[in-house]
Amino acid sequence: MQKYYFGLIVLAGLFSGLCFSQQPAETNIAVLDKPVISEEYNLMPGDTILVTVSGSTNYSYTTAITYEGKVVINVPVASAPTPQGYFVPRYDAVAAIPIFDLSLRAARDSLLKVFLRYFRNIDIDITLVGMRRFMVYVAGEVKKPGMIIALPTYRVSEVIRLADGTTSIGSRSKIKLQRTDGAIRIVNLEEFERSGNVACNPFVRDGDLINVPKMEKSVIVKGAVFGKMGYELRVSQLTASMERTSEGLYELNPGERVSDFISKAGGLTPWADQKSVYIQRGDTRININLQEALAEENSEQNLELQDGDILVIPSINAIVYVQGQVVNPGPFPFQANLKASDYIGLAGGPLAEANMSGAYVVRGKKRISVKKDPIIMEGDRIFVPRQIFKFWQDYVEIGSVVASLLISYLTLRTVSK
Hints:
Layout: H1 2-21, E1 48-55, E2 59-64, E3 70-81, E4 87-98, H2 104-115, E5 122-130, E6 134-140, E7 146-150, H3 156-162, E8 175-178, E9 184-187, H4 189-195, E10 209-212, E11 218-223, E12 232-235, E13 242-251, H5 258-264, E14 278-281, E15 284-287, H6 290-295, E16 310-313, E17 319-324, E18 330-333, H7 340-346, E19 360-363, E20 366-369, E21 381-384, H8 391-416
Parallel strand pairs: 6-10, 11-16, 17-21
Antiparallel strand pairs: 1-2, 1-5, 3-4, 6-7, 8-9, 8-10, 11-13, 12-13, 14-15, 14-16, 17-18, 19-20, 19-21
């Protein structure tokens, strides 16, 4: 019985050793947007494949494509006994055939012809278990030009990202992709990002050269948009208002309109003032009804832009004023869902002579009491009046002063006697 269990343990160890020995050298699994298709993936030096033989004989082995672009043909030639008396197959390399730049399907057909020289009534299969790494060259308007190590699953956009992206003047619609055979392809990443058309963002290949040229024409978009790198919060020292704004240079392609550049700039922020949008074209200011331009693509308000235009989207005036008997009266940045008491607190709180029961909010032509602590809206004015004493309070104060003077007078007379 002990021999039986010992034999099982040995077999398990041999099996696990064989399994681990067949793992590919590539340990980092590539991120794929879809499974590899046998007809589309071409094998090159550095790829690792699992060759499986089935039929009259059954075995498999893992091998890498050599630097010469060849794959080794292994066949079992003998069995070597282990110290425990078990027989393990031994393989010999009998040939090496070129399969570089062949698809997985074509490479399988080529290997089958070779294996049929050694075995009858068999079939083979090829499985890609490790992807090669190769060099791609990036030049032009990228932040870090040079050589990038890529995988066959990388697209042009991924390689440019690894080069830290394009510069502020780099084109994203006229990128040149040059193959090693001299073929040149124009890559349009803006179209890819807009429509998701992967044909505009192809896979890279070994030795590709990616050249990012300068923009031929451009438009500046500034104001209440999210922008390429997000927006900035700038606080004005004069008004204490928050100017939440972004500014960026965007490539102009033929026929592009106002709505196209709003999309390129990341869309409008919630605080965009759509009624005050304008185009600065030289010395001319062209007012735009942005709501109409975005609602109807062919609207007259959705103008075609020209090289050098500046599209400005102002922010809504988001200020709340606190006035009257508070420590620090003045304007404060609007914050959603804050109440009157919150803004009075931001102003340092009420003074001793403040009449909080008479405080109110001015909203347009309306006057709202703060007794129920209402939620404040943009542009509201909070007023905290001064306490007005009643007549009897005034008399008490005057009487106390007179009494104090009378006591002082009587005290002086007593001392003089």
